[in-house]
Automatic annotation (TrEMBL):
Coiled coil: none annotated. This is NAD(P)H-quinone dehydrogenase. Residues 344-451 form the Pyridine nucleotide-disulphide oxidoreductase dimerisation domain. Residues 3-323 form the FAD/NAD(P)-binding domain. Keywords: FAD, Flavoprotein. The keyword Zinc does not apply. Belongs to the class-I pyridine nucleotide-disulfide oxidoreductase family. It comes from Actinomadura graeca. The keyword Ubl conjugation does not apply. It holds the Pfam family Pyr_redox_2. Its cofactor is FAD. It comes from the Bacteria.
Length: 461
């Protein structure tokens, strides 16, 4: 029986463990924090749970136009709503623990052994956990990553925070400064704004979400500004310090921003130091991420890696697929290499931003020849009924064949809507085929088929 040791119990680890166990391997997962890893316990699950609450609050706060009134406060629905952060944070942490328990139960059902502790490769086929030695025919590294710390802005867990420390706050931050306008910064800035904090978002670039679709980022930034967020573009933080009952963020140009709390969202660093990789010959890049090929192999044939420690699209879905591919390959099953062009992603802001396949930047640069259509959400009947005005559906297709190459959706629950576009991209469907697919009327998904009809009528092939 093949002995497999997986270092890390997040999606890149536990998904791999399930595949390996079902294929008859003897599987041991070593995890220092608990089943589900940081994704379940401190990162993805907690943040999306918090965001679910904030989104509900935003919907209620903007419902006057639908004829709703809330009698709980003198100023109507806005004045009568407030977030009980003790209850919100308790729910966040309870749900994370429950999800971790579910992962543990699933692994136990498949007879996967779970060892709690810090792991280290002491020999190519031996993993150490304290004084214990675990032999391995195959090793999978799924050690994840840790919030990057900006020198001069070290989190203290009270006023200067990383996102893993938010859920221990006893009350809602009065004036929250978020440093970093990437995905995590935008998600949490928007969430705390909806929950009632006064939010300043410090962005080193000329817009928020600099790596995402420019049209989507523009819509989201307009929403943030309309709701009262202070977005400071082209502003880079040089340091953060405590000041009485608050914080002062100093920018590189010398300007200072004051608030009650500061949230640092300035990227991730891989958890690859001190685990023996250099001793057994596993290569890492200049930033410390494990180098892997498209079937998750490292530079050592029997050692694989998956998830955030590889630096390849830091998404739970990608981590899980990398782990599954690793086990299929290691155990001799037929496997299709990871195709990043098929990966769909979502930013859990309000509205959400989902995308898959070809990007607008690839089209604009000439790297991809594609026809494009962008259909504003306010033309959608269901969006009008629900009072949603911000967003769009954008599709890309080949000019000659009409094959769908990708898309971007900015809308409530865009994470659910993008699946149809993902299927079209992966299965090489044409806009004609999507256009002739029945969509419910009225529905937000109807904008996908409508966009396809517009592309179908515009191209000649």
């Amino acid at each position: 029986m093949t002995r497999i040791v997986i270092i890390g119990g997040g999606p890149g680890g536990y998904e791999a463990a399930l595949v390996a166990a079902q294929l008859g391997a003897d599987v041991t997962v070593i995890e220092r924090d608990g089943p589900g890893g940081a994704c379940v316990l401190t990162d993805c699950v907690p943040s999306k749970t918090l965001i679910a609450t904030s989104t509900r609050m935003a919907v209620m706060s903007e419902s006057q136009g639908l004829g709703l009134r809330f009698s709980g406060g003198p100023d109507g629905i806005v004045g009568g709503l407030e977030a009980d952060m003790a209850t919100v944070n308790k729910r966040v942490k309870d749900l994370a623990r429950a999800q971790s328990f579910d992962v543990a139960e699933r692994l136990s059902y498949e007879e996967v052994k779970i060892v709690r502790g810090e792991a280290r490769l002491v020999e190519p086929h031996v993993v150490a956990v304290g004084d214990r030695r675990v032999p391995a025919d195959i090793v999978l590294l799924a050690t994840g990553a840790t919030p990057r710390v900006l020198p001069g802005a070290e989190p203290d867990g009270e006023r200067i925070l990383n996102w893993r420390q938010l859920y221990d706050l006893p009350e809602l931050p009065g004036e929250l400064i978020v440093v970093g306008s990437g995905v995590t910064g935008a998600e949490l800035a928007g969430a705390y704004l909806s929950l009632g904090s006064k939010v300043t978002l410090v962005s080193s670039r000329d817009r928020i979400l600099p790596s995402e679709d420019a049209d989507a980022a523009s819509v989201l930034q307009d929403v943030f500004l309309r709701r009262g967020m202070n977005v400071m573009s082209r502003s880079r933080a040089a340091g953060v310090e405590r000041s009485g009952h608050g914080v002062i963020v100093t920018l590189e140009d010398g300007a200072k921003v004051e608030g009650t709390h500061c949230l640092m969202t300035v990227g991730m660093v891989p958890n690859t130091q001190g685990i023996g990789l250099e001793d057994v010959g596993v290569r890492c890049d200049s930033r410390g991420f494990v180098e892997v090929d498209k079937v998750s192999r490292t530079s050592v044939p029997h050692i694989y890696a998956s998830g955030d420690c590889t630096g390849i699209l830091m998404l739970a879905s990608v981590a899980g697929m990398q782990g599954r591919i690793a086990m299929w390959h290691a155990l001799g099953e037929a496997v299709q290499p990871l195709k990043l062009g098929w990966v769909s992603s979502n930013i859990f802001t309000d509205p959400e931003v989902a995308s898959v396949g070809v990007t607008q930047q690839m089209v604009d640069s000439g790297d991809v020849n594609a026809r494009t259509v962008m259909l504003p959400l306010f033309t959608n009947a269901r969006a009008k009924m629900q009072g949603f005005e911000d967003g769009f559906v954008k599709l890309f297709c080949r000019p000659s064949t009409g094959i769908v190459l990708g898309g971007v959706i900015v809308a409530p629950r865009a994470s659910e809507l993008i699946l149809g576009v993902s299927i079209a991209v992966q299965q090489h469907l044409t806009v004609d085929q999507v256009a002739h697919t029945f969509a419910v009327y009225p529905s937000l998904s109807g904008s996908i088929t409508e966009a396809s009809r517009r592309l179908m009528s515009e191209h000649a092939y």
